[in-house]
């Protein structure tokens, strides 16, 4: 009856909030801030030299470029998987639904050695591919496949609940109005799924950019050919070039956040558009 | 209610006519291709690697497999992994419950920002998660010189491994609890408080039973990641054999030394952990959904 905002009657705000903020600051925020403070060890020109050196640029291009390509594959494959899991009934459906999460749950080092052995030239899949003249392990193609592996759950698990909840009546209405199946899918279903698709894409992309464990075994790690940015950070650290390592890390963080920010904006835009459609 | 509708002959008949007539679904050929692509993709990328781990681990027989696991380095790695996981998960359990209580039960400015910050470790590369602790505690780090002069080892020792693992697994429990507690609201807790229960008693008697499955789920995911974390731990551990090697790090070392069967043997334990986690997840999701159903009876 009263329009005034209701104050919570529960106790414990001070305690829980205090604990949260202390823990968050000590463990996450202060260490991350240290990253930015450390780059100040380098002068601006040194910083620019480090991050624009051939090797660094190449590693960044490999990480971001291949992660983007892998996330695109995850988008298409993820949509096909979600569609099959939600709309069709086939033997083993529940099992396949459950194993979608494996890349998320399997420790990355395990995934790394398994994928490398699988795609090595004498491996189960590597051997037939090699006879076709396709070399996967220890090439950028191997990095790409490892990134595809690691990104599978993200698009599937963000789009799946939305497709399940999607009102069948909207589709029926489209059919009643004379739409073909293709028109119903592209004009009605896909726009409603777009915000979730973009979220899944962003998550898969962010994961693949920073991925280390499942990639380094299959990558071959040749400088300027198949060296990913996280590995270059590890190499710089082992050479005790802390400031260089930090500079690469800062560029990775800033670029990732910018891309995720842009995708978030795109997602909001798609959401308003999806609402307009339905 | 729903079940009777689905089973009514009219609906079945209608569903069949829908299947026969085109506009509501795809032609059988398209359906077959979509299912085929989905199944092939998941088989190549998920099923085959998983089978490969176990088949490689057992390729020299069960005896060899067991002796690889009973190796003193393997036992040390398993022990360190367990200790690290217990500490990290406990810390993040306390934090996760506190964060979820603050976010779900109260209104305050900057809530969205707080939730974003809690999720931050998910979007940071594991290598960078390790790097930040090297910068804090390394020889050239902010606290490094002071720690060294006092003879305290953090980096390349167990404390840094625990810190890096806790950093990486920070969001899991909070992320699971926040939406669950937001959905449940706080009426039951308010009722308990108005009847004179203390805050702590309200939490234990009212809130905890409501969130127990979600809490267990969060802890399981947190634990799986804590035991399996590789990148962050690799950067801070120093790889001292028998001392600062966790199971994933030992997998890497054995693999690089071409002790493939031993490497896959350790890896198979971690794969087993992932499988158990997923099975428990499937069971728990059922429990959580059941818990959220309105109790009419």
Automatic annotation (TrEMBL), chain A:
It is a multi-pass membrane protein. It is found in: Cell membrane. Gene3D superfamilies: MetI-like. Residues 60-263 form the ABC transmembrane type-1 domain. Its main location: membrane. It comes from the Bacteria. Pfam families: BPD_transp_1 (PF00528). Keywords: Membrane, Sulfate transport, Transmembrane, Transmembrane helix, Transport. InterPro entries: CysT_permease, MetI-like, MetI-like_sf, Sulph_transpt2. GO terms for cellular component: plasma membrane. One of its GO terms (molecular function) is ABC-type sulfate transporter activity. The keyword Transmembrane applies. The chain crosses the membrane at residues 12-37, 62-86, 98-120, 132-156, 188-209, 215-235, 242-263. Belongs to the binding-protein-dependent transport system permease family. CysTW subfamily. Part of the ABC transporter complex CysAWTP (TC 3.A.1.6.1) involved in sulfate/thiosulfate import. Probably responsible for the translocation of the substrate across the membrane. Part of the ABC transporter complex (TC 3.A.1.6.1) involved in sulfate/thiosulfate import. The complex is composed of two ATP-binding proteins (CysA), two transmembrane proteins (CysT and CysW) and a solute-binding protein (CysP). PANTHER family: SULFATE TRANSPORT SYSTEM PERMEASE PROTEIN (PTHR30406), SULFATE TRANSPORT SYSTEM PERMEASE PROTEIN CYST (PTHR30406:SF8). This is Sulfate transport system permease protein CysT.
From TrEMBL, chain B:
Keywords: Cell inner membrane, Cell membrane, Membrane, Sulfate transport, Transmembrane, Transmembrane helix, Transport. One of its GO terms (molecular function) is ABC-type sulfate transporter activity. It comes from the Bacteria. It is found in: Cell inner membrane. Pfam families: BPD_transp_1 (PF00528). The chain crosses the membrane at residues 28-54, 74-101, 113-139, 151-174, 260-280. The keyword Repeat does not apply. Residues 78-285 form the ABC transmembrane type-1 domain. PROSITE patterns: ABC_TM1. Its main location: membrane. InterPro entries: CysW_permease, MetI-like, MetI-like_sf, Sulph_transpt2. One of its GO terms (cellular component) is plasma membrane. The complex is composed of two ATP-binding proteins (CysA), two transmembrane proteins (CysT and CysW) and a solute-binding protein (CysP). Part of the ABC transporter complex CysAWTP (TC 3.A.1.6.1) involved in sulfate/thiosulfate import. Probably responsible for the translocation of the substrate across the membrane. This is Sulfate transport system permease protein CysW.
């Amino acid at each position: 009856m009263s329009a005034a905002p209701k104050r919570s009657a529960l106790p414990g705000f001070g305690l829980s909030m205090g604990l949260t903020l202390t823990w968050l600051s000590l463990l996450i925020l202060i260490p991350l801030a240290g990253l930015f403070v450390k780059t100040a060890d380098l002068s601006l020109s040194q910083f620019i030299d480090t991050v624009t050196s051939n090797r660094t640029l190449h590693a960044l291009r490999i990480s971001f470029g291949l992660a983007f390509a892998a996330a695109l594959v995850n988008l298409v494959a993820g949509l096909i998987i979600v569609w099959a899991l939600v709309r069709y009934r086939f033997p083993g459906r529940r099992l396949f639904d459950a194993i979608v999460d494996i890349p998320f749950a399997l420790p990355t080092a395990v995934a790394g050695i398994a994928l490398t052995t699988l795609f090595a030239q004498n491996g189960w899949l590597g051997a037939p591919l090699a006879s076709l003249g396709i070399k996967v392990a220890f090439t950028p193609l191997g990095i790409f496949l490892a990134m595809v592996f690691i990104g599978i759950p993200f698009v599937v698990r963000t789009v799946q609940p939305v497709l399940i909840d999607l009102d069948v009546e909207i589709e029926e209405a489209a059919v009643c109005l004379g739409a073909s199946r293709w028109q119903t899918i592209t004009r009605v279903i896909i726009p409603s799924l777009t915000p979730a698709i973009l979220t899944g894409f962003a998550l898969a992309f962010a994961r693949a950019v920073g991925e280390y464990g499942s990639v380094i075994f299959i990558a071959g790690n040749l400088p300027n050919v198949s060296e990913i940015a996280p590995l270059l950070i590890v190499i710089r650290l082992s050479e005790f070039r802390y400031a260089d390592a930090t500079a690469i890390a800062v560029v990775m963080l800033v670029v990732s956040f910018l891309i995720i920010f842009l995708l978030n904006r795109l997602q909001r835009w798609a959401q308003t558009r999806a609402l307009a459609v339905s | 209610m729903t079940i009777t509708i689905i089973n009514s002959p009219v609906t079945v008949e209608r569903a069949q006519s829908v299947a026969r007539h085109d506009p509501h679904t795809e032609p059988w050929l398209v359906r077959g291709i979509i299912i085929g692509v989905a199944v092939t993709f998941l088989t190549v990328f998920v099923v085959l690697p998983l089978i490969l781990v176990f088949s490689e681990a057992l390729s020299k027989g069960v005896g060899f497999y067991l002796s690889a696991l009973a190796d003193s380095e393997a036992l040390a790695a398993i022990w360190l992994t367990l200790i690290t996981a217990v500490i990290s998960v406990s810390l993040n359990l306390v934090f996760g419950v506190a964060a979820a209580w603050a976010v779900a039960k109260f209104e305050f400015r900057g809530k969205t920002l707080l939730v974003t910050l809690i999720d931050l470790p998910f979007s940071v590369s594991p290598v960078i998660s390790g790097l930040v602790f090297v910068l804090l505690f390394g020889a050239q780090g902010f606290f490094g010189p002071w720690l060294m002069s006092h003879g305290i080892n953090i980096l390349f020792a167990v404390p840094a491994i625990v810190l890096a693992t806790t950093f990486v697994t920070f969001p899991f429990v909070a992320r699971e609890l926040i939406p669950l507690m937001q959905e449940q609201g706080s009426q039951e807790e308010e009722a308990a408080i108005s009847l004179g229960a203390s805050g702590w008693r309200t939490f234990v008697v009212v809130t905890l039973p409501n969130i127990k499955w979600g809490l267990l789920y969060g802890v399981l995911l947190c634990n799986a990641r804590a035991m399996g974390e590789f990148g962050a731990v690799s950067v801070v551990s120093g790889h001292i054999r028998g001392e600062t090697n966790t199971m994933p790090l030992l997998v890497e070392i054995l693999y690089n030394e071409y002790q493939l069967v031993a490497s896959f043997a350790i890896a198979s334990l971690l794969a087993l952990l992932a499988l158990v986690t997923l099975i428990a997840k499937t069971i728990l999701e059922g429990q959580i959904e059941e818990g959220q159903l309105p109790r009419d009876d």
